[in-house]
Amino acid sequence: MVPALVNFVHLANAMLHDNMYKQAFQLIWHGWMEAIRTITEKLLAIKALYGEGWHVVFLMDSCAVQIQGLGDYLLTLNDSAKSGIITSDAEEIVQYVIQTCDVHCNRNLDALGSVCTPEDMDHIRHF
Fold this sequence. Notes:
The chain is mainly α. The chain has helices at residues 3-11, 19-40, 47-50, 64-77, 80-83, 90-93, 102-112, 118-125; strands at 58-60, 98-100.
């Protein structure tokens, strides 16, 4: 991350991304996983995909393309016979392993409140 750009990202009202950013994040996740395999001589043991292992969750900051890129990468690792996850949808598979930072989640929910009813927001916040 470029420190000078961080403030712009956090202050932006909206961020528009094309598919190239999603593909870039897929490559970043692939590179990160390969670095772990090179250093440890083992695959990262993602419990949801392998049925065993210690890595249960990826803590994310609500960056959509980062999450979508992870989902695309996870699809390449998924063996549905082992994981029991039968999907070809990146946005579905990623739900098994991500958790969103409370601060970023609440920031996004506050913005969502401007277009949702108070009842809907209560439902979403207690989900």
